[in-house]
Please model this.
Amino acid sequence: MRARLLTLIQDDLVEYDTAMERMTDLVGQRQRDERPDTLWLLSHPSVYTVGRRTPMTHLPDPSRGIPVVETGRGGQLTYHGPGQLVGYLIVKLDEDQGIVDYVREVELRLVEALGKLGLPAERRDTPPGSELLTGVWTVETGRKIVSIGMRQSRGVTSHGFALNVDGDLTPWNWAVACGMPDVDMTSLKRELGSIAMSEVRAAVAAAFEAS
Model:
């Protein structure tokens, strides 16, 4: 992986719509070279976000009471909620690097962070003829622990990743996550037991060379 120092922004719980407005502003600043490459760590109240190609059959029953928001990132349905660490990456890509290349870098950095936390993890190659497979899975149990959905505009990335730390996993079962009906979503708490969000934030920031 190429060296890439990031500026770190940290918040606790931020409404999804509010976060999207700020992220758009940060992207504009980066496109104009008014700010450096940035990692923004935060969490959201419960919300499902969907990509433009998410099938209606993958959406949750409205009676669950969790809002569904369409977003401009790649990927399909993702759940966000308390106890999950979200990372938005506002990064100007090098001329020889595309968004798929950067997603692979993000996966590897998160694998490194999880390893430092004591959880062996891996990225997976996309099977021939399948839609791009993104995210991070546990090695021993084969469960998915990180969802990734990103885009780029004028050479700058936006959106990012969601790492399940110690939140309620039940809402994942009310919809089709990541376009994979059989996926088993997990968290650091499920795999390792109790773990502090502050420890996870520090490990993720270090893996992305963010300070």
User: Anything to note?
Assistant: The mean pLDDT is 93. Residues 76 and 179 are 6 Å apart (CA to CA).
